[in-house]
Amino acid sequence: MKTLLRTLGFLLGLLLVSLVAHQALYRAHYWSRTKNDPRAIYVLGDSRAVHGIDLERLSERLGRPMFSHSTHGASPYSYWAMAEVIPAGATVLLVPSHGMLVRDKEKVSYDSALSLPALGFMAREGYAWWFFQQVSLENRFPFGAPFAKVNREPYEIRDEVVVLRQRFDEIYLSKQAPWHYRPNQRLFLHAVQILMEKGCDVRILEMPVTPELGALVKGSIYRGLFPDFPELEQLAKVQIYRDVELEQVPGQNIWYDLDHLNIRGRDRMTEWILANVFRN
To answer: Rounded to two decimals, what is the model's pTM?
Structure first.
């Protein structure tokens, strides 16, 4: 029995050492990419940020390097994990969406970094086993998902908006929120608090969606990202940008689908950010 306990203790200790080393490698890798440049602006978001913000134009116009860790289906966990990696005092643009709070496991990405505090929080909140399994699988290598410096391929311009209502109807016509909705809010809130405690200049931007989707969300049990998440707006020293309205000219469609901008929309969104968020 004593031998078994010693073996289990050794394996547990080895696991903890491996996790600590893993985190150290992550930080070294990210910092090697960003050079810990004090002028840098970090962007954390999901696919709306991926396709809706022109990083290269922002960097050129602001004269500051831009680094983004925005992924399709980003989870609140990813915001927490990346908040730990971002250097103290940095300028950070968070681009959350209401979808990150309600997505089911088939549409969620945890590709970010391993965070023991975040995993501990999830354990205390009663997250299902598959959450931890997915986090471990997507972050098993310490050199994955570095901050990106270049734009990803924007969505093409089309005359018609791609309408995929089914997945939104399943979420916003439901009369009950998924069990992980409130815990996900707290996960994201912790990410913001981590950045604030590090003295970061935190700005939160909610990307616009089509009027059709906006009406669907406002008429749901949630009412939207901020109306159902008042703790965000109560944070001191956090600048929040919401209810963004982009110019829509007849015959010049700016949407790819119900919640993503096409390249024309991305250009207008980027100019809006320059005029309002960074006031260039």
So the answer is: 0.87
Q: What digits encode the pLDDT tens for the residues 187-223?
A: 999 999 999 999 999 999 999 999 999 898 989 988 8
How far apart (Å, rounded) are the C-alpha atoms in residues 175 and 80?
29
Q: Which residues, at least 6 apart from 6, have a Cβ–Cβ distance to it below 8 Å?
A: none
The H or E element that residue 6 is part of is: helix 2-34
Domains of the chain by range and CATH?
2-276 (3.40.50)
222/111 Cα distance (integer angstroms):
27
Q: Are 260 and 52 in contact (CB under 8 A)?
A: yes
Residue 67 pairs with which residues in a beta bridge? 42
Give the side-chain half-sphere CA count within 13 A for 102.
22
Most distant CA pair in the chain: distance in Å?
77
Q: Are 251 and 279 in contact (CB under 8 A)?
A: no
d(CA 244, CA 272): 9
The Cα–Cα gap between 67 and 33 comes to 9
Do the Cβ atoms of 159 and 130 come closer than 8 Å? no
For 87-124, how does the pLDDT look when each residue is reduced to its tens digit (9 = 90+)? 899 999 999 999 899 987 667 888 888 888 999 999 99
Report the run of H or E that residue 133 belongs to, with start and end. Answer: helix 129-138
Per-residue pLDDT reduced to its tens digit, 135-174: 888 877 665 555 776 667 777 777 777 777 777 888 888 8
Beta partners for residue 205, in sequence order: 241
